[in-house]
Amino acid sequence: MSQSLHLAIRTVHLLAMALLVGGAAGLWAAARRTPDDLHALATGYEWVFWAALGVLVLTGVGNLGALGAPGPATRWGQVLLAKLSLVTAFVLGSAIRSLAVARTDRTTPLAAWGERAYGLTTVTLLALVVLAEVLAHG
Prior knowledge:
Elements: H1 3-33, H2 38-67, H3 75-103, H4 111-137
């Protein structure tokens, strides 16, 4: 893979993660301040979330291929396994969150659980960023 293509893939990967973290953090804050508008914001974010998550998975595979994964017995391999396990749990939890948003309407207050759901989403994404940083830089 050429150096410029690898840089482009990593840049898209980072931008997608920034979009996910920023959106989740914004909704976390919005749930605390403006619960009336939360449903429209959450619905829009969920569409963007799944598109950006797809981009993250695709570009993550490209990044992994460029880095070359050593076996699971190495420290790097163990961190990768931890990250992939967290990603799996995160995707399942996000599916539940997305379904909950889809099942509500404007009359259902999301602020009660939305603050916790988007707070947990933000914290989990930040944990994934830390694990990614360890994988990228040791």
